[in-house]
UniProtKB/TrEMBL annotation:
Keywords: Cell membrane, Ion channel, Ion transport, Membrane, Potassium, Potassium transport, Transmembrane, Transmembrane helix, Transport, Voltage-gated channel. Residues 173-340 form the Inward rectifier potassium channel C-terminal domain. It is a multi-pass membrane protein. Residues 24-166 form the Potassium channel inwardly rectifying transmembrane domain. The chain crosses the membrane at residues 60-83, 137-160. This is Potassium inwardly rectifying channel subfamily J member 1a, tandem duplicate 5. PANTHER family: ATP-SENSITIVE INWARD RECTIFIER POTASSIUM CHANNEL 1, INWARD RECTIFIER POTASSIUM CHANNEL. One of its GO terms (biological process) is potassium ion import across plasma membrane. Belongs to the inward rectifier-type potassium channel (TC 1.A.2.1) family. It catalyses: K(+)(in) = K(+)(out).
Amino acid sequence: MIGSFNKRIQDSLAERRSRRTRLVTKDGRCNIEYGNVKYSNHFAFLADFWTTFVEIRWRFVLFFFIASFTLSWFIFGLLWYWIARSNGDLTWQNPPVDHTPCIDNVVGLTTAFLYSLETQTTIGYGGRALTPFCPGAVALIIIQSLLGAIINCFMCGIILSKISLPKKRAKTITFSDMAVISPKNGSLSLSIRVANLRKTLMIGSQIYGKLLRTTITPDGETIIMDQVNIDFMVDAGKDNLFFICPLTLYHIIDKSSPFFEMAVDTLHKQEFELVVFLDGTAESTSSSCQVRTSFIPQEIMWGYNFLPIISRSKEGKYRVDFSNFSKVVPVATAHCAYCFHNIKGHHHHSKDGNDNQGFEVIDINESPNVTKM
């Protein structure tokens, strides 16, 4: 009991350490902060106020939405109160019976605020109305109507822009929790799986990766975030993916790959982060979006392959089984890339996985040794 509790604590602490050391989290957020920024540079955010308002959190958008309308109603309410006071319309000023007011039924601060709200929101209950005998009041109602329209357009535009942000579309694109290394088409490959949870396509999808690690140059300079390009592809290529069903993307580990010098017993001792990017255009909104995720060495499984998830029913319909999306099975794999290319039969596993033969329904008599990620 105590041992299992201690193990849970250690696993939780290890997970927190891995989150702190990531540059890109599993859901695509960048774990970076800026320090010692000059105070004058903060005014650049005000100059680009539209982007600033679109990117701030929803709680602040709702606060500015409520504050902008309430404050404008109150300020113009004070101006209407001042006009009524200047004309002697208020109750405590005891206007005569034949007095002609600037605004009918505005006799105090509360009624002035209500008139301001009704004017800017175009409610018009009919109890309070402007008379044509005060030119200043006519000018003020024009100014308030124009300013109210500007506030309406700006705040509605901000809310619509936040709702339609491309990164919301990226929430329906998911990557596998783990990457695997196994033979594929006569080569040793690092594979990941990606799925589009919506039936609408991502047009012009492109996949690529960056390997981030700390390197030391021959001159002795330490580069904290050295970036190495990692090419990913599917069987049909790497550009303009037909992203109608989950795809398995793979990177060939050859002599030009940074994974070529790694082995099964040294992989988890490495310090790097593999960041994978998927760029595309949403078919329904025509907006471009980018999906990101990352893999650290502990999330790369050597000698495993993904289980098939696509099958075809007897009626001829294709079916995607997402219960196998994050499941892998051990396959015969060399201990290292050098062993794969030069030493035959030097395998890490001896048990084969099950291939999806032509998208047909497969009857598996013997249950494979499945590992869930």
